[in-house]
Design a protein that fits this description.
single chain; 172 residues; alpha+beta; 3 helices
C-alpha cells in the first residue's frame, strides 16, 4: 500500500514538473492567399452577366459560357517563388481570351480583408509589374475545399456593362 502511494506521488510530481514548461510551439508565418492560389486551377463554370440588363431587370441577364467556345478546356496557373511571392500566371486551353493569356501577377493584399471587400488580382505584362494589363477580383478565396471564384468586370465610362465569373477548382 505504501509503495502505491509513493509511486502515485512520484507520477504526480513528474506530471507537475512537465506542466510548468508550456509548449507554445514554434512561430509559423500566417498562410497567405498567395500560398492558397499557387498551382493549376480548372474551370468548373463561367458565367457572363450583362450588368446593364441586370440593373434594369431585363431578362435574360446571365449566360453560362462554360460549354461554349471551348471554355471547358480553360485552366489557369498561378505561380509563386520559394518565398511565396507571386511570379507568373498562364491561361491554358484553346479558349478565346477574356484577359491576357500570360504575364505576371500580384494581389492587392496577401490576406483577406476584414471589411469583406474582395482582394484584387493585378495582371501585368512585365516582370517589374509596372505595366498593368487587367484586374480581377478574388470573390471566393481558396480554402479547404480547394475552390475559388474570380470575377472580371468590363467598364465603359466607369460603369460596369459586363462581368465574367470564373468558378475554379484545384487541379492536382
Amino acid at each position: 500500500m505504501r509503495s502505491k502511494i509513493i509511486y502515485g506521488l512520484a507520477i504526480m510530481g513528474l506530471i507537475a514538473v512537465g506542466c510548468n514548461d508550456p509548449d507554445d510551439g514554434s512561430y509559423v508565418d500566417p498562410v497567405t492567399i498567395y500560398e492558397k492560389m499557387d498551382g493549376d486551377w480548372g474551370l468548373m463554370s463561367l458565367k457572363m452577366v450583362d450588368e446593364y440588363a441586370k440593373a434594369n431587370a431585363i431578362e435574360p441577364s446571365e449566360r453560362n459560357l462554360g460549354a461554349y467556345f471551348n471554355y471547358e478546356d480553360f485552366k489557369i496557373r498561378f505561380s509563386v517563388d520559394d518565398n511565396m511571392e507571386p511570379t507568373t500566371y498562364e491561361v491554358m486551353g484553346d479558349v478565346p481570351p477574356l484577359f491576357p493569356a500570360n504575364g505576371y501577377w500580384k494581389l492587392s493584399s496577401a490576406f483577406q480583408q476584414p471589411n469583406g471587400e474582395a482582394v484584387k488580382i493585378y495582371l501585368y505584362s512585365d516582370a517589374q509589374k509596372t505595366q498593368m494589363t487587367d484586374e480581377l477580383k478574388l470573390v471566393a478565396v481558396p480554402g479547404s475545399g480547394e475552390q475559388m471564384e474570380l470575377q472580371l468586370v468590363r467598364k465603359s465610362g466607369g460603369i460596369a456593362f459586363v462581368s465574367y465569373s470564373f468558378k475554379l477548382n484545384a487541379v492536382n
